[in-house]
């Protein structure tokens, strides 16, 4: 068994190195290389590496570390400035997009419960991809970068009621739905408040002592421990792993060690994040997608158009400059990894049939693959809409 595992790892690394070298040479986004590795080596290709729940869980640590480094760029002051866009625009974006998606799915013949899940899954964007691209292009501090992160923060929070509702819709829950949602949100709010208070009063002296010891290994391990520990706490409270790691980064952004922490974590983040995108590629059933290709392309087109238009219009309602609103809308027009989680859970609970599952999975994964191109096009397109950008929250 050890030989088989080692063979799989070597094959994965060899394919990643080869494709990354080719894609970087011809100027294609390396995200597409990782996705292609997953497709070729996964169940839809040569089946060298099976897609398991354990593998998927390990891959999520790439997202955890990515959100940790993103949090290092956002102080509490910045988040407070963006509060209207997190809980106002973010909530409106999820609600309106989910309703439109659900109505379209219902009109196409899905049952109300299945349509609700599909609408909710498609309303969520890719925290991992958008954050990675904004960080790589050094645009996190720009208006569209701050606004995108604000909306993504609420989307991560919105996953919680969706996860609670899916078993209820499938008839597997004996508790009242509103009671379950209220309890989860209350526990989550308490946990977040306690984490922020602890971080504000304990982290700075703790990391000062560690830094004074002069041990690089101790400093790095403590940073990893804190990022993963915070993710574990929020996941235990019913929230997402990514949200906890983001909050951990925000707390440490108040210290003088945030730049050092970012540099220490970056190698782990980049490797594990690549692994995450490989696993996403492994989830795609090529035979099913090719059979449903016309429907997948139609769904992909509708997804990009609906999310771009609705987010732009909602941004204008919240007094966001139109260029910034459209730039943000284009960045968030794809589906996301949490949407994949909702679809897989709904299929497991019997709410979605196999064909609908693969249709939605194919749509989301293809939209994620297009995100690097959307990031490149978003700036020029938004500049044609307005003559100047005005900072969000400034």
Question: How would you describe the overall organization of this protein?
Answer:
With 394 residues, the chain is an all-alpha fold. Helices cover 80% and strands 0% of the residues. It has 2 domains: 1-50, no CATH class; 51-385, Na+/H+ antiporter like fold (Up-down Bundle), CATH 1.20.1530. The protein is built from 17 helices and no strands. The longest helix is centred in the middle third of the chain and has 37 residues, at 177-213.
Q: What is the number of beta strands?
A: 0
Cα-to-Cα separation, first versus last residue? 58 Å
CATH topology of the largest domain: Na+/H+ antiporter like fold
In what range is the share of β-strand residues?
A: under 5%
Mean pLDDT: 81
Secondary-structure map with pairings?
Layout: H1 2-26, H2 30-41, H3 53-71, H4 76-81, H5 83-107, H6 112-123, H7 127-136, H8 143-169, H9 177-213, H10 216-236, H11 241-252, H12 258-282, H13 286-291, H14 293-317, H15 322-331, H16 337-348, H17 354-385
Question: How would you summarize what this structure contains?
Answer:
With 394 residues, the chain is mainly α. It has helices at residues 2-26, 30-41, 53-71, 76-81, 83-107, 112-123, 127-136, 143-169, 177-213, 216-236, 241-252, 258-282, 286-291, 293-317, 322-331, 337-348, 354-385. The chain is globular.
